[in-house]
Every structure is written in structure tokens, then in C-alpha cells.
Amino acid sequence: MPSQTPRVAVVFVLTLLVLASSSLAVAAAAQAEPEAAAPPAHGVCGGGGADAGGGCHSVPRALRLKLIAIPAILLASTVGVSLPLASRSVPALRPDGDLFAVVKAFASGVILGTGYMHVLPDSFNDLTSPCLPRRPWAEFPFTAFVAMLAAVLTLMVDSLMLTFHSRGKASAAVAHHHGRHGSPPPQELVNRHGYGHLDDMSEPAASSEDDVEAGRTQLLRNRVIVQVLEMGIVVHSVVIGLGMGASQNVCTIRPLVAALCFHQLFEGMGLGGCILQAEYGARTRSVLVFFFSTTTPLGIALGLALTRVYSDSSPTALVVVGLLNAASAGLLHYMALVDLLAADFMGPRLQGSVRLQLVCFLAVLLGAGGMSVMAKWA
């Protein structure tokens, strides 16, 4: 089982690389068609916009805000993802407690709001930009198509990993029953000799084995959820950090810093809760925390380094960022709705308490609503 779980990350890395390379090829082909490059009437490429405002465009002030944003976002991300991991010492915040379920529901709402209110609209804006030729970008909804494919691919990986795990355990169980000398399993002895008491004796052992197997399957599922969720969050964090680092618009950066701190804090809490339930070792937890905490600051630093050569209105940048955002949105939608919210709300804890269900519903609405409000500035 430990040898198979890293394959999930490999699959998604390869998928993102394929999306990036294919988008580059499409952008190059689109640029080679001058007759289709006329911008639509609803906008002007690279002109106007927020950056054109004289009071907002200031390189020194923008640099100062970015240098403040890097440690602030790093601190918020680290605190958010580390809080659930430190909750084992607080009885009220343990994974089997009601308060943990409410906090996780709130964080899941933040992740859901991130996908619907931030990542998906960004992808629509990028792939419908007037800087792109009308063919093919204005003739087909690439954002929705790529988001749908990403959600289906996430489902496929989730399902196949559980299938391989179940088959491996089933084969091991059959081999264990037959033994070294080909002895028949206990059920065959019962059918052959009619000793009913043997069946009664095997029931507790079988029930115990089923419980252990169910726990292992759930643990594997939790680990798959962590890896896939972190992949989607990392992609979006690098993209938004790159855009912020390359921007010189003070009016855009100032509210974005506060919004990103809020976003990283509560999204980190959702990821941290998943990491806690995955029961990773200290080294793996440290790696996951490090990648989540540093991707947005590293994206900002990369944007600072590429300020003179990177243009967020260039066709290539729009296509690559738009497609990556679409894939990240589809992944976050699936993970938030299926693996986080549906798994908890259909589970025995919330199904056994209507009051806890309603409180968790309210927490989800608050988390998603908070991210929706943040969409006004970020």
C-alpha cells in the first residue's frame, strides 16, 4: 500500500504537464493565424485595465507590499495547516470530536468556495481574454471542458487506487486461507463436515478482520484525498502567487494580501485535517506542510524575478494559466463535494445527529460565503 500511494501524485504531475504542453502548442498554433487574431469588440488587449491607472501603478509601493505579503502569507499558511496537526493534544479538537467536524466542514466550504468563486472565474477570464484569437478560444468553452475532465480524472484515480488495494488484500486473504500445504479454508470444512460450531467460532474473527480491512481501506482513501487535494491547491497557489508577484498594481495587491492570508489560513486547516486523518509519519507530514506553506510565497518570488519578462496578458501565459486553473477548479470541486463534504455528511457521525448536521451545514455556508465575499477583492 505505501508503494502505490505516491503514484497518485505522479499521475497528476504528468497530467498537468500534458495540459501545459498542449496549451503551449495550441497557443503557438493560434498565434500563427493572423487572420483570426483580431480582438473582439468587447475589450482591448493589454490596454486600459487596472494597471493603467496612474495612482495605482507604482513599482516601489508594489514591491514593498509584495515583500510584506511573502512572510505574512507564509505565516498564515503554516499556522492554518499546522493547527489540526497539533489538535491531538486538545481533546475537543481530536478527529473523533464534534468540534473537529464543524471546523473541517468550515474549511471544506472554504475549499469549495475557492474552486467556484476564485479559480473557475479566473480561468474563464483568461481563456476568454481579448488578447487571445477568437478561434478556437471564443468558439468553445474550454474552461468548463477541462474542469469536467479534471473532475472525471480525479474520480478515476480515486476509484482505481481503491480497486487495486482491494484486489491485493483479497489475494492475500485467499493465500492465507489455503495455507502452505493447500489446506481448505474454514468455510469449506464447515460445508464438508457440517460442524456448525466451527462457523460460530469463525464469525468473531471474520468480523474483526472486516473491521481491520475497512480501517485500512479508509486510511488509504484518506491518503489519496490528501495527495490529490494538495496537488490542486499547489497548482492554484503557484499560479496566483506568480500573477501577484508580476503585477505592479498597488490597488490590486493591497486587498489581495489580506484575502490570500484568509484563504491560506482556512484552506490550510482543511488540508491539515485531511493530513491528520491520513495518519502519516512525521517526515511525510512535514513535507506536505512545507509544500503547502511555501508554494504561494515562492510563486510571488518567482513573479518578482520574472517581472520584466512575464506578461499576464501574453497569449501563451493566458492559455497555460487558464487551462491549469480550469484543471485545478475541477479537482477542487470534486474533492470538496465528494471526498470531503459528502464523505462526512453521509458518515455515521453526522447521520446520527441532526443537530450536528445543521451546525456543519452552517459552517459550510460560512466558509463558502467568506470566500465568496473575498472574491470581490481577489
TrEMBL record:
InterPro entries: ZIP (IPR003689), Zn/Fe_permease_fun/pln (IPR004698). GO terms for cellular component: plasma membrane. It is found in: Cell membrane; Membrane. Residues 1-20 form the signal peptide. GO terms for molecular function: zinc ion transmembrane transporter activity. The chain crosses the membrane at residues 67-87, 99-120, 140-162, 224-244, 288-310, 316-342, 354-375. The keyword Nucleus does not apply. It comes from the Eukaryota. The keyword DNA damage does not apply. Its main location: membrane. It holds the Pfam family Zip. It is a multi-pass membrane protein. Keywords: Ion transport, Membrane, Signal, Transmembrane, Transmembrane helix, Transport. Belongs to the ZIP transporter (TC 2.A.5) family. This is Fe(2+) transport protein 2. It comes from Panicum virgatum (Blackwell switchgrass). The lineage of its organism: Eukaryota, Viridiplantae, Streptophyta, Embryophyta, Tracheophyta.
